[in-house]
Design a protein that fits this description.
Layout (H helix, E strand, L loop, with lengths): L3 H12 L7 E7 L5 H14 L3 E6 L10 H8 L28 H17 L2 E6 L6 H13 L5 E7 L4 H11 L4 E6 L4 H12 L1 H15 L3 H17 L15 H12 L3 H13 L5 H8 L3 H13 L3 E2 L2 E2 L2 H10 L2 H17 L4 H10 L8 H16 L3 H14 L3 H15 L4 H17 L4 H14 L2 H17 L5 H15 L7 H5 L20 H15 L3 H13 L7 H13 L3 H18 L2 H18 L2 H14 L2 H4 L4 H14 L2 H8 L11 H16 L3 H18 L9 H11 L3 H15 L5 H12 L3 H18 L2 H17 L3 H18 L2 H8 L6 H7 L4 H5 L3 H11 L4 H8 L3 H15 L20
Parallel strand pairs: 1-4, 1-5, 2-3, 3-4
Antiparallel strand pairs: 6-7
Length: 933
């Protein structure tokens, strides 16, 4: 071990060879560095060699008692040489520099006793913690050592930091040339490994030595604490310890060992350690000195000592467990004032506001209200919100609210609390939001904090209060132009015009909204770019009111690329993403939506997560992935219950009802429609989706007149609100389908043609659906061409559910024209697509079509599977596409092979599954044509 060399050195000095005069060895080192253990080793060695040992242990508690150490030495002497007990007079203690006249006989007596003892045998005086020895004992010891010329006398002492009388008395001895100084340093990693070998075995000791050293800095007492904790765990655990049991884990015994290291340094040392624990580090000695009211010189000494003993490293605790036990060691009446003082000192130094707030929050003690506290807490809340530490932000704001005496400041704090927590738990903030409605409407709440309150009130359907608050914002924006309020106000007006356009209370603000102006107009040198907030809401309103606008779509994409999601930008990001959804940019919208769902889920922002889940459900519904629609819409209502949605609940409910209706789950849709909804829901854009979904359900369940009423109501609202574009809702097609069931062919045709005209010539989902409905109004011989066109448009635009319906109609049209082979092929394609979409009712209706061959039926029910298993992967792909109605040329283009190769594959397929013609191919081969088409 590393200390063997020091032991040998001491033994040579004290017990080997002959030298004139006494021998003195001083063992020094930090607290718990092993000084006492080394001293005991020396005394044990001396006893084994026949050396008489006179031991003594100095104690800080006995330092004021004269001759306490000397009396311990006398107790170890044989009775025949032991002098009478020393009882000096008071005058012996009054001279701080030397022995009084009355003390001289006592010193001489001690000298004679040493001479007598060393004449009989070698003598070793061993004193532990000599720095705590009383002054009279030190004088006797120094007197005897200086005058004893016998080589048989050896003295070994262990000492810590020397201060006061002990330093003066021993200084002349400890710096003589004949003195041997042994300075014990903490163990190195190698030394720790050697120590651990006896406990863990050589292999595990080498593996874990660095970790043990990292926690302890090589401190023997701390190492023993870790090993004792390990032993305690093993005795409570299984007989065969699990892997990793030997890794160091700071337990109770380790914490107590650390506390012992601190306490052994004395009161000032302990106070410094408590101060470091409170601040978290010791890098700023002046700050630490002011906190604990200890001189900087002593603070530096204590920090150096704490570092030397392995408690600190780089100004910080090596183990959080040590900091915790030191904080727990402070009494409550000490802890509160210390935290308060630390917060004030940090605030004055301009420290991180969150660090200041943690001290204020750690122990809130009653006391005078100081002006700086509220500001410090507000600053910390702003930083905490930016770092997404919501609980900390709320704690800061609530504490600031308790401290403030200003009414406007208190209202501002309440508004900030609402804004901070609304994305995470709106339900918890509804009462606070409602309490702010009055102050916001009367102008007591500052305008910047009023805007989030307005948005919250709109969602709750409290339009009168929202209008009153908006009036205050408008007034403030007019009085203070150029402060950003005008931009925020215009963004709200754009949001109102596209989301809440049917409220007389809000009409004055809508009337003030100027024309959007052209997109992408180059800016002059003196102009600044439009804010992302305005851009996002302008883009959304453009698409909702005019249909797909490529410039608006590009603008929304730029917003998503440049704006980071936060409390202040969540509506901006949401509006930009809605623009892509309504514009049927499914792939891009899905990518952004999935990214935002993941981000908000990781942050725990339940409300934001719910909003983006609804958008994801809307995307899935528009592309025809009905199961995904249900999954995302249900998750949205799980993350944010219906009460939390307020008057916007029509969106998640509308998605669910629409999807269940398309899937044929009419009981589930009816149950959702039976749930109570707020009356204000029908007066916003989100309510349109609910109304449209209810109409679809009524049409599917045979209530045509009720469906027609709802479809018309959708159209009337959309027209009145300026949102009647194909991008919003295709109410005309719903009404047209309803008229078809009532026999109103002409009305249905007129509505379908209107929708087709609005859709334009682009290959959109709406155009494909309009062509499908229009085909149903035409004579039989005209339907096939329109339906084929509809299938092509829907395939290009990605409207899979509508494409399945178009294929089903095309199959029926071919059947009515007597083309049964083509009808069967179209039915198979429609069936596969319906299965993929989750359109179970459509799938069931297609399976009832009596155009399936016996071999196809056998394949769907799992019969004759051996024949299909013989097909190669290439043959299976070709057969699946052929069964879905694709021509050889189309198959060759899709699979990047020649037409001849397609024909060869089909010939082998026919032979292997024992069929003779293409129309007998089963429609159940495992190849997803719908999403590769």
């Amino acid at each position: 071990m590393e200390r063997d060399q020091e032991i040998a050195r001491l033994n040579r000095l004290l017990f080997e060879g002959a030298r004139e005069g006494s021998r003195l060895a001083v063992i020094s080192g930090a607290v718990t560095s092993g000084k006492t253990a080394l001293l005991h080793t020396v005394t044990d060695t001396a006893g084994g060699r026949g050396v008489r040992v006179l031991p003594a242990v100095a104690s800080a508690s006995e330092q004021k008692f004269p001759y306490a150490v000397l009396e311990q030495l006398y107790q170890g002497m044989p009775p025949h040489v032991r002098p009478s007990r020393p009882r000096p007079g008071l005058e012996a203690l009054r001279d701080p520099n030397g022995p009084a006249q009355a003390e001289l006989p006592l010193l001489q007596d001690f000298h004679r006793t040493l001479d007598q003892l060393t004449g009989d045998a070698p003598l070793l005086i061993a004193i532990d913690d000599v720095q705590f020895a009383d002054l009279p004992s030190l004088r006797c010891l120094a007197y005897g050592i200086r005058r004893c010329r016998s080589g048989a006398l050896s003295v070994v002492v262990s000492r810590g930091a020397l201060t006061g009388p002990a330093a003066t008395a021993l200084d002349e001895l400890l710096h003589e040339p004949k003195v041997c100084h042994v300075r014990l340093a903490p163990l190195t990693v190698s030394g720790v490994s050697t120590l651990l070998a006896g406990e863990l075995g050589t292999e595990d000791a080498g593996r874990h030595a660095a970790a043990y050293h990292e926690l302890t800095g090589g401190n023997l007492l701390l190492l023993r604490g870790l090993l004792d904790d390990r032993f305690s765990r093993l005795t409570r655990g299984p007989l065969d310890p699990a892997p990793g049991t030997d890794a160091p884990v700071a337990g109770e015994l380790f914490r107590q060992a650390a506390l012992s290291c601190v306490y052994r340094g004395g009161p000032a040392h302990r106070r410094v350690a408590h101060g470091v624990a409170l601040l978290g580090d010791a890098t700023s000695v002046p700050l630490l000195s002011r906190l604990i009211e200890v001189e900087e010189r002593l603070v530096r000494q204590s920090v150096a000592l704490l570092t030397e003993v392995g408690i600190l490293h780089g100004g910080r605790f090596r183990s959080d467990a040590v900091r915790t036990v030191l904080l727990d060691d402070l009494e409550l009446h000490e802890l509160g004032p210390l935290h308060h003082r630390a917060a004030r000192l940090l605030y004055e130094e301009g420290a991180d506001p969150i660090d200041v707030a943690r001290h204020l929050l750690a122990h809130e003690a009653p006391g005078p209200v100081e002006d700086w506290i509220t500001q410090a807490l507000c600053d910390a809340a702003v930083h905490a919100i930016a770092a997404d530490h919501r609980e900390l932000a709320m704690n800061c704001l609530q504490m600031a609210d308790r401290y403030t005496t200003d009414e406007r400041e208190a209202l501002q704090l309440q508004a900030t609390m609402v804004q901070a927590m609304w994305p995470f738990n709106p339900l918890s903030q509804m009462r606070r939001l409602q309490s702010l409605a009055g102050p916001a409407g009367s102008g007591l709440l500052p305008a910047p904090e009023t805007i989030p309150v307005v948005i919250g009130l709109l969602g709750l359907g409290r339009m009168d209060e929202a209008a009153a608050a908006l009036e205050q914002v408008s007034r403030a924006a007019a009085e203070h132009p150029g402060t950003g309020l005008d931009t925020g106000l215009r963004a709200i007006r754009l949001a109102l015009s596209s989301t809440y356009p049917d409220h007389p209370e809000l009409r004055p603000f809508l009337d003030q909204e100027e024309d959007d102006g052209p997109w992408d107009v180059p800016l002059s040198p003196d102009q600044t770019p439009e804010s992302p907030h305005l851009t996002a809401f302008r883009a959304l309103r453009t698409v909702l009111s005019r249909g797909v606008d490529e410039r608006a779509v590009r603008a929304a994409e730029r917003v998503l690329e440049t704006v980071r999601l936060s409390d202040r930008t969540m509506l901006t990001v949401h509006a930009a993403l809605q623009t892509l959804v309504y514009a049927d940019r499914h792939a891009t919208a899905t990518t952004w939506c999935d990214r935002l769902i993941e981000e908000t889920s990781e942050r725990g922002a339940k409300a934001l997560l719910a909003y983006f889940c609804v958008l994801r459900a809307q995307i899935a519904l528009r592309v025809g992935r009905l199961r995904d629609t249900v999954r995302y819409a249900e998750r949205a209502l799980e993350e944010l219950p219906a009460r939390g949605w307020g008057v916007t609940v029509g969106m998640p409910l509308g998605m669910l009802i629409n999807a269940h209706t398309a899937m044929g789950n009419h009981d589930a849709a009816a149950e959702l429609l039976a749930r109570p909804v707020p009356d204000g829901m029908y007066r916003n854009r989100f309510g349109l989706h609910y109304l449209y979904a209810r109409a679809r359900h009524q049409l599917a369940t045979g209530r045509q007149h009720a469906a027609l009423t709802d479809f018309r109501a959708c159209g009337e609202k959309m027209a009145a609100w300026g949102l009647d574009s194909p991008a919003t809702l295709t109410w005309r097609l719903g009404a047209a389908e309803t008229w078809l069931t009532l026999g109103g062919q002409e009305r249905a045709a007129r509505l379908a043609e209107e929708q087709l005209e609005l859709a334009g010539e682009s290959s959109s989902r709406t155009r494909g659906a309009a062509l499908r409905v229009l085909a149903a109004t035409r004579p039989r011989h005209e339907r096939v061409a329109l339906l084929q066109q509809a299938v092509g448009v829907l395939q290009a635009s990605g409207g899979w559910y509508e494409m399945a319906r178009a294929l089903a109609d095309l199959a029926e049209a071919h059947k009515q024209l007597g083309d049964l082979d083509t009808s069967r092929l179209m039915t198979r394609r429609a069936l596969r697509l319906a299965d993929s979409c989750g359109a179970d009712e459509l799938s069931r209706s297609l399976q009832r079509t009596p155009a399936r061959s016996a071999l196809s039926e056998a394949a769907r029910t799992g019969e004759d599977t051996a024949a299909f298993s013989e097909l190669s992967d290439a043959e299976s792909r070709v057969a699946a596409l052929a069964a879905s109605g694709y021509t050889n040329r189309e198959i060759a283009a899709k699979l990047f092979i020649t037409i001849s190769t397609v024909e060869q594959h089909l010939t082998r397929v026919y032979r292997k599954i024992n069929i003779s013609q293409r129309r007998e191919l089963p429609a159940s081969l495992d190849f997803d044509v719908a999403y590769t088409a």
